[in-house]
Every structure is written in structure tokens, then in C-alpha cells.
Design a protein that fits this description.
binds nicotinamide-adenine-dinucleotide, single chain, seven-stranded mixed beta sheet, 526 residues, five-stranded parallel beta sheet, 21% strand, alpha/beta
Length: 526
């Protein structure tokens, strides 16, 4: 390993690197550079290079896994409350630098400042929540079916965790994965998105500054090649992936090449808001504006479908369309900007193609539907907040993830029909129902097949102390955050302690085989 440059690797040092600096992979506590590099750019002005990073090959993954393996041996012997204290300290560094980090998120991921601050705040909250688990229950105690015997469960680290992350929560998602993994005693190699490497670098620098040991959290930058190598690396015991469904499928296949291991998949969504005739339409409109067009529609939980009762569709769509048309597109760091750019030109093209296909299938563009130029943001891929009416459940735009500021309106005549439409897609992340009738709300909560359901709140806005994840193609059963956040990063160990001083056999000799037979333990000495 070579090319260490310590000044770049402190948190303030990394935050200052937004003018084209060359940064390395973070392996074993050193910065490791490569000849092939790629640029991290500001999506609002793609000519503005923030920093350059290694376009890593598989060898970098080998080095990073070796470093994580070595560091994990020591870390797993650190008492859990002490691990928790280090994680809490990371939260302190993130809180100290919140404003600068939020600016970085806005510049690298294109999120408007208030949302960028929320991204960082999630990581701060996650540090505090995960740290609190360091003094919480670490297992369960159970009675035995035999006398003088006790049974319990505990957690043990898996070893080295490989993490592959998307760009749209570039500080929050690494924190959702790294903090529980560290608390559980693991080493980490993370391959962050090629669209947001500097945010990952700043997060890792904060961890190091707060005392997470060198080599425990390694960062390998690049595109698909190092990510795929990480997923199938024999030294990696668990793979934690967040991203799109097609990539998640590839990761799962790669991860199983070398035999079974833990693979957690947090994938895309096709989230719906149901609005019933008795709903408060103003509250629903507020929720739609935030859920559909926040983060330019690029959240896994973005409200992509409005499933609305035909009695109120005209009124609600008119309000939403008028307010959507008034949203200000612009530089995400500027005060007054409501919607930033989508992440790149290819995304804008994909979104526009999907809108065009919807129109070809019979949908009507009520507002939006165009790529637009923004003064001072040359080359930025801005897409107008778009509302499509007359969409049917079979249309591609109603079934596939758009991942852009496009709301499809689907009309229904009853709650049952609404639930059927909500459940008709292969995704199952988040849904919302707006009604003032508690009976209908509870029926919807029970019948909607998603991992998260909101009542009278939009499909975005998860809180970090509750489990997060989805059903069907959105995931494979794991949940991140909340009480289940440790599951994907730890193995459960079951322990039986027999203090009877003799052989006792469970399920064999502790029940009389027939009525009148000797009672259990009749052979035991008093
Ligand atoms: P993506 O799938 O394009 O990329 C995610 C990561 O996978 C990146 O780091 C990328 O470099 C890597 N990758 C690319 N090809 C790979 C391959 N062949 N093997 C292994 N890794 C590979 O996703 P994205 O555009 O960064 O993020 C958007 C997607 O993520 C959307 O579908 C969104 O819904 C989803 N997402 C889901 C959640 C969730 O918790 N369910 C959260 C955020 C985003």
C-alpha cells in the first residue's frame, strides 16, 4: 500500500476536498491510489469535478478484505459497551460537521439543502440509537424442558461484512449499515456509489476521527467490478446491498457463488398513496408534493402512484398539479430551490422515455413532462415535476420504478379496489392511506402488502428506530434500522448450560411414554 496522505483523511480535510483533489481507497488505515480514476461531479453542474477516486480493480478488494479481517480480530474482543461509545463519538463528529456535510451531500448528490441536512441527521440519530443498544439486551433467556439446565441466545459477529451502497442517501445509508455492523463486532469493506464517493469518504473519515480503529472500516471506490468482487469474495461472510432490483439480483447470485452466506437486499419501490373520499385533501396534497417530488422523486420510498377515489380525483389532481408546476427547480445549494437535478443525464433520459411510453399507452400529462435547463446550472439534468392522469395498473409507468419526479394517478371506486391496485406491483416497500375513517385505515393497513404503511402521512419519512425494508421484490426479508438492524450483521448463537452433573436427554426421557409409566426424572437422585 502506498500514497498515504493523512491531511486528506481527517474529517475536516475530506470536507475541504471539493475542488478536484485525488483521493484514494481507504485500506488498512492508508490511502491507496490507482492509475485508473473516475470523477465525482456536481449533478447540478457536471463540469464541476469535486474529487477523483480510484476506479478500483479486484486486487483492491482483496487488500481491503485482508485489512478488515485482521482488524476485526481485535475489535471483536472489545467489550460491546466500549464499541458503542466509539459509535456515539462518530455521531458527535457528524453533528459537529453537520452543516459542511449537508453542503457536500447537496453538491455531490443534488439534494436540496434541507434534505441533505436530513440525510446527515439520520446518520447522527443512527449513531445515538445504535450506541444505546450497546448496553441493551444481547439475547434471550429461556427455560429448559429439563431440570437444572438453562438456555439462552446471544449474538456473535459474522466476521467481515461487504457493503454496496446507492447514491441517494450517501451518508445515511452507510451509517445504517456500518453502525450496527461495528456494534456487532465486525470488520467492514464498503463499495459506495460511484455517484457519491466523497460523501462516503467523509463518513469514513468521521469514523476514523472518532476512534474506529484503522483497517476496521475500509472503502473501495469504483463501479460494478469491485462491487461484484466484494459480493463474491470468500473472505466476506455477509453481504449487505442497497440499490436497484436488477443490481440486487446480480449481487445475490455473485454472493452465492462461493457457498451460502448472509445476503441482505434492500431494493427499489413503487410506492402508492391511497386517498379516500373522506380524506383531508389539503393534507393529502401536502403529502403528495413532499412524497412525489422531494429528492426529485429519487427515494426508494418516493410516492410514485396516487391511487385515488374517483369522487375526489379531479379536485386533488388540480391542486397537486398547480402546486407541482410552481415548484422551483435549481441549484440544490441555493435558498429557495424546491427540486434539484436528477443524478445524471442518463437518468433524465430514462425518466423522459417512461413518460413518453405512458403517453403512448394513453396517459395524459397534466403538468411537467419535460427536461428543462436552469440558469447557472449548465449541463444539469433537471426534470419537471410531472403528474400523469389516466394511468392504468397495466401501464409500464404504473408498474416499474421511475426513480424521478413523476406521479401517476390511478382512479378507483372503492377501498378494496385501491388495495388491489396498490398490491398489483412486484414491489412492496412503502404505502400510505389518507382517510378520516379509522375502520378503513385499519383495513388498509392489514391488507396492503408492503413493509411500511403510513396513515395520513406520505410514503417517505421513516424513523431510524423502527425496522425499514420491504416485501416481494423489494427485499429478501431482512430489515435495516430499528430493533432488527443487528440481524443481518450478527449470527445468533444458542447456548445450553446443563448443571445437573449427569446426562440428560432432551425430547427422549423427560416424558412418560404411556399413562401410568414412571414420571419424568424418576431416576434422579434427590
Ligand atoms: P444501483 O443498483 O444502480 O447501484 C447501487 C450500487 O450497486 C452502486 O454502488 C453500484 O456501483 C453497485 N453496482 C452496480 N453494478 C453492480 C454489479 N453488477 N454488482 C454489484 N454491485 C453493482 O442503484 P442506485 O442508482 O445507486 O440507487 C437507486 C436504487 O436504489 C433505486 O432502485 C432505489 O429504489 C434503491 N434504493 C433502495 C433503498 C432501500 O432501502 N430499499 C434505499 C435507497 C435506494
Amino acid at each position: 500500500m502506498s500514497g498515504t496522505n493523512d491531511t486528506e483523511r481527517s474529517t475536516p480535510g475530506v470536507l475541504a476536498q471539493t475542488s478536484g483533489a485525488m483521493l484514494g481507497n481507504r485500506i488498512g488505515g492508508s490511502s491507496v491510489f490507482a492509475t485508473r480514476t473516475f470523477a465525482s461531479v456536481n449533478p447540478a453542474r457536471p463540469a464541476e469535478v469535486l474529487a477523483r477516486f480510484p476506479d478500483s480493480a479486484e486486487a483492491a478488494v482483496d487488500d481491503a478484505v485482508a485489512a478488515a479481517t485482521a482488524a476485526q480480530r481485535t475489535w471483536s474482543a472489545v467489550p460491546i459497551p466500549e464499541r458503542a461509545e466509539r459509535i456515539a463519538a462518530v455521531g458527535g463528529v457528524l453533528a459537529r460537521d453537520k452543516a459542511a456535510l449537508a453542503l457536500l451531500v447537496a453538491r455531490e448528490a443534488g439534494k436540496v439543502l434541507i434534505e441533505a441536512g436530513g440525510d446527515v441527521q439520520e446518520a447522527i440519530d443512527m449513531a445515538s440509537y445504535v450506541a444505546s443498544q450497546g448496553r441493551g439486551a444481547w439475547g434471550t433467556v429461556h427455560p429448559s424442558e429439563l431440570a437444572d439446565k438453562l438456555c439462552w441466545t446471544t449474538r456473535q459477529p459474522v466476521g467481515v461484512v461487504g457493503m454496496i451502497t446507492p447514491w441517494n442517501f450517501p451518508v445515511a445509508i452507510p451509517s445504517w449499515k456500518c453502525f450496527p455492523a461495528l456494534l456487532a463486532g465486525n470488520g467492514i469493506v464498503i463499495k459506495p456509489s460511484e455517484h457519491a464517493p466523497l460523501c462516503a469518504e467523509a463518513f469514513a473519515a468521521a469514523c476514523e476521527e472518532a476512534g474506529i480503529p484503522a483497517g476496521l472500516l475500509n472503502v473501495v471506490h469504483g463501479y460494478a467490478a469491485p462491487a461484484a468482487a466484494l459480493a463474491r469474495h470468500p473472505g466476506v461472510r455477509a453481504v449487505s446491498f442497497t440499490g436497484s432490483v436488477p443490481t440486487g439480483r446480480k449481487v445475490a447470485v455473485a454472493a452465492m457463488e462461493d457457498g451460502p452466506r448472509l445476503v441482505s437486499l434492500e431494493l427499489g419501490g413503487k410506492n402508492a398513496m391511497v386517498v379516500l373520499p373522506d380524506a383531508d385533501l389539503e393534507v393529502a396534497a401536502d403529502g403528495l408534493l413532499f412524497g412525489a417530488f422531494g429528492t426529485a422523486g429519487q427515494r426508494c420510498t418516493s410516492t410514485s402512484r396516487l391511487v385515488v377515489h374517483r369522487d375526489v380525483v379531479a379536485e386533488l389532481v388540480a391542486v397537486v398539479a398547480e402546486r407541482a408546476a410552481g415548484l422551483v427547480l435549481g441549484d440544490p445549494t441555493a435558498v429557495g430551490t424546491d427540486v434539484g437535478p436528477v443524478i445524471d443525464a442518463a437518468s433524465a433520459d430514462r425518466i423522459h422515455t417512461m413518460v413518453g411510453a405512458a403517453v403512448d399507452e394513453g396517459a395524459e400529462v397534466v403538468t411537467g413532462g419535460r427536461r428543462v435547463a436552469v440558469d447557472g446550472c449548465e449541463g444539469g439534468a433537471f426534470y419537471e415535476p410531472t403528474v400523469l392522469r389516466g394511468v392504468h395498473p397495466g401501464h409500464a409507468v404504473a408498474r416499474d420504478e421511475v426513480f424521478g419526479p413523476v406521479l401517476s394517478v390511478l382512479e378507483v371506486g372503492s377501498l378494496d379496489e385501491a388495495v388491489e391496485v396498490v398490491n398489483s406491483v412486484p414491489y412492496g416497500l412503502s404505502a400510505a392511506v389518507y382517510t378520516r375513517d379509522v375502520n378503513n385505515a385499519m383495513r388498509a393497513v392489514a391488507a396492503i402488502d408492503t413493509g411500511i404503511v403510513y396513515v395520513n402521512a406520505p410514503t417517505i419519512g421513516a424513523e431510524i428506530h423502527l425496522p425499514f425494508g420491504g416485501t416481494k421484490h423489494t427485499g429478501n426479508g431482512y430489515r435495516e434500522a430499528g430493533t432488527r438492524g443487528l440481524e443481518q450483521f450478527s449470527e445468533t448463537k444458542t447456548v445450553y448450560l446443563d448443571y445437573s452433573g449427569r446426562l440428560q436427554r432432551a425430547q427422549i426421557d423427560n416424558r412418560p411414554p404411556v399413562a401410568g409409566a414412571a414420571p419424568p426424572h424418576a431416576d434422579r437422585e434427590a
